[in-house]
Amino acid sequence: MRLTGPLRAVAALLLVGLTWLLASALFGGDSGSSVRSFFIAKHAEPTPAEIRPRRYKCGLSAPCPPKHLAFRLVSGAANVIGPKICLEDKMLMSSVKNNVGRGLNIALVNGVTGELLETRAFDMWAGDVTDLLQFLRPLYEGTLVFVASFDDAATKMNDEVRRLFEDLGSTAVKELAFRDSWVFVGAKGIENKSPFEQRMKNSKSSNKYEGWPESLEMDGCIPLRPPLDA
Q1: What is the edge-to-edge ordering of all strands in the sheet holding 217-223?
Q2: Phi and psi at residue 130, in whole multiples of 5°?
């Protein structure tokens, strides 16, 4: 009975010591580094959502094969946000470059070398369609034609303009109407219809913006043409 007091004191000291060792192992001290690292490692591993995907040219999700050009087209949003044309990670046309406008925004590219030839914006609401005809008629064989609409791309279109775009591989241009969104890549001398084309119809029942459909975005890889003398 006389030893009860001392035994209780010893037990209390042992309990305090064990508690301190456990706390030290978990939260501090060199002796707990392995334990801490176990817990930290569990929480430090990034989740799949936190892993940033690798970025390729023009923001594509995968690289293009050799001898292919990476591109991304974005049509304008309503009459507020301008279109974009990116090729091989170079922005050819955009509001930042201050070379886009209402109507059709067109970049011409050498289909053999990938070299930019010219960029122009054509006002298809109040402009002169003759300017667009003079731009499209003399294209050389193999010229790549990148098109992104902004605001209204169709009001000034006539039958000859539509036929010229059909010759470049377009199928949607026949039906292109007031304030439709349109992105297209064609080529002079193409034998088949272009696989790179999207059109969003202007419709009150489905428009994303009041009076305009949503913006279109399209990307892909275009094979370079072999030289004509190859």
Answers
A1: 90-93, 84-87, 68-74, 217-223
A2: -60, -35
How far is the C-alpha of 214 from the C-alpha of 76, rounded, in Å? 9
Task: Return the SS3 of 221.
Answer: strand
Dist CA 69 CA 83 (whole Å): 19
pLDDT in tens, 171-228: 999 999 999 999 999 999 999 999 999 999 999 888 888 889 999 999 999 999 998 6
Residues 64, 57: contact at Cβ < 8 Å? Answer: yes
pTM, to two decimals: 0.77
* Spatial distance between the Cα atoms of 73 and 75, rounded to a whole number of angstroms: 7
Rounded Cα distance between 51 and 66, Å, is: 27
